[in-house]
Amino acid sequence: MRLTFAAANPDAIPLHVLPSQEASAYIAALPAAGQAWASQHGFTGALGQVLVLPDAQGGLAEVLVGYGTAQARARGRFHIGAVARQLPKGVYRIASGLSGLDLEEAALGWLLAGYQFDRYRKAATPIAGLVAPDGIDAARIQIIAQAEALTRDLINTPASDMGPQELEDAARVLALAHDAAITVTTGDDLITDFPLIHAVGRASTRAPRLIDMRWGDAGPTLTLVGKGVCFDTGGLNIKPGASMGLMKKDMGGAATVLGLAQMIMALGVKLRLRVLIPAVENSIAGNAFRPQDILSSRKGLTVEINNTDAEGRLVLADALALADEETPDLVISMATLTGAARVAVGPDLAPFFTDSDDHAAAIATAARQVADPVWRMPFHDPYEALIEPGIADLDNAPGGGMAGAITAALFLRRFVQSPYVHFDIYGWQPSAAPSRPKGGIGMGARAVLAALPQLLRL
């Protein structure tokens, strides 16, 4: 799906964005007919109000959009994106009321409001068009919107059409589009060098694999690692039906790093990028890995399996060990990893872990600027003992039910010595919100993109 601005149009309908405190003055300056129209419709500038002012011929003269108070706006984001779906068919331009980051958010929100997952049914009527506002980098915003659409499409596609092979195919399409190199290690070829990836994926009829994509020949080195569990039954510790219902989204980390990679490559960011995706299906068969098995990892650390449903950290561990062997300037992993993270911060925030206060500050600042909310969680060293079972080097699922997101992050950190940031994302919008229909969603990617100049000193 193409998410783009409308072509420049001198007849585009002007759209005036009015905070509550400015609405009365603006209305008072309208001709008498306009004042009466606004009064009749009770327009006060409240957040989300839309008032279409007719011209003398009954057409659209202009549109007033309520922007509410700062307090009201703080309770959400992409408020102009919500407006985009309320307007009559046509092409619009933001004529007044927004500037700077607010204008950029409005423009991106408008494009994202046009997203529809239309692979299996005809799309609904497209939203109204928006001419790219003056003062923004329209090309950059379109690239970001397109990359988010890729992430959403990948997550929304059911596992019947999005297994390890199809995830590889998507990575190959992206690599071809940006002249990136790609190699894939598949099936039993994983046994020696990536034993955890093989162990998790071997029970499926769809072969596990490690996807390795490289792009760029100059600049600092960034490696993105995305969890690509294309469906997660839970393995022999099978999930109950209610918990299995959304497991097509368990490759949301892979989908998000592919979207982020598309942003980086399409924008021509001056760095050397590597993307690693362990793509598997966690299934049940006679050769499935079992509770109490002890598995070896690429790094040589042994892992006691205390729950086969804690498989994401296993496949990520081998990929992270591979990433770390080149000592990149920064490693970032993204994964739909733990329910504990959702309990901690809900579905709208992307929790992240890092030992670097500078990295944390850069990501948090960028997240606020681009309306991509994140929240730092701690690599709490005293909990290290919880992931040490005694019989092996590591435990993949410590008992006790506490600090699940932290212990998972600590597990992953054991495989990385390079500077490291880990995101434990949800990857799903549970109910429709402005510019975010129910379904797959990217989390954290725009924040990372905006933070890259600080993270890598570009």
TrEMBL record:
GO molecular function: manganese ion binding; metalloaminopeptidase activity
Protease is among the record's keywords: yes
Enzyme Commission (EC) number: 3.4.11.23
Keywords for the protein's UniProt record, in alphabetical order: Aminopeptidase, Hydrolase, Manganese, Protease
Signal peptide region: none
Domain Cytosol aminopeptidase: 307-314
InterPro entries (alphabetical): Leucine_aapep/pepB, Macro_dom-like, Peptidase_M17_C, Peptidase_M17_N_1
Gene3D superfamilies for the chain: Leucine Aminopeptidase, subunit E, domain 1, Zn peptidases
Cellular-component GO terms for this entry: cytoplasm
Alphabetical GO biological process terms: proteolysis
CDD domains: Peptidase_M17
UniProt similarity note: Belongs to the peptidase M17 family.
Protein name: Peptidase B
